[in-house]
From TrEMBL:
Keywords: Membrane, Transmembrane, Transmembrane helix. The keyword Transmembrane applies. This is Uncharacterized protein. The chain crosses the membrane at residues 72-93, 113-139, 181-206, 237-257, 283-301, 307-324, 336-359. It comes from the Eukaryota. It comes from Effrenium voratum.
Amino acid sequence: MAASVSDVHLLESGEAPVSRAAALGRACTEELVWVWRESEDLMVEFAVHVPCWASIERSELLRRRYLRWNPLWWFSILGCAVCILLGHGFHAACCQGAPVRADELEVERRARVWWVYCYSGGFVGTVLTDLIALVMAVVGNKDAEERNRTIRSCQVAILIQLWYMIGDWNLLFRMSRKDTVLMHAAAISRVTFGAAFLVAFCIGLLTPAGQAAFEHWAEGLPEAGAKPPPPPPRETAVTWVIRLVFCAFMVVAYLGYTPLLRLDYHQADEDTQREHCRGIWKLKVALVAGVLMVAVEGFMFSRGPGLWMLAAQPFFVLGTAYLMEDGKLSWKRFLAALGSLLPFVVVGSGFASCGPALWEILAGK
């Protein structure tokens, strides 16, 4: 068999040819080392935002014994490393595994690796878990009602998770195009996504209807006058607990996306960017207005649906967009505001359409 051109070159230069297996092993090792370093830097970024550690230098912080000898610290780094690894693989398959541009900024690199890859990787893991549960439900010999509940729950979960992962893809795409308005909207939607579903979960725990729905799903207790249902599938419970933890974790994503919201591609000077960029203001308006809207809709329709409230959603988006853009609305800015508020619109519309049955739908009943 004829030698390849690269092998001939290596032989002429006196170097031993590298086999494909060795090259693959080296690439995997470099990937794992890179992932571990990035996840460690991400956890340090979290640590420096803790009030009691804010004044400590990063290098000094890593030498502190309460971190170096803390199993929870290393477990957190390992979890982030797994998520970044999965997220990098997912976005690499979407041609987004490299810098967004040749002139990628450091703030963009951190957002891409620490936050986009990490969160996407977490949802890659839950999607795989849901797919396994879905396949087991389809091919298993379970009770028909239990199988249908598991299938519906997994389908809803996979759709929600794919929605978030597509949003991450959109954020990197907007960064590559240097589109400030739509990039800010995509970044804000990453935070509002977690906030919307976390508020929905909290409302479920605070209202009697929501508590009954959660108790019925989690413990299999029958509703008043209803036939006792079969025990809920364990796979569904585990995956939904994981998703709720991710929703809570996504709320703190503002730490990573705040620097992006200060970035304005049309302003070269950083001081001018901080002075004129309204990304942080947009995030605050979207969070406050969205949380209030979802909370009102959730408590208002805890006893039943109210389809008339769906007509108020366009006015909610329009009014919030007007505040976010300081009255300077255009079609592009309105669409950007809609993208930022879409998680709140979807969850609020779910409350208006389904009432307390929203939690049962999310649970796959």
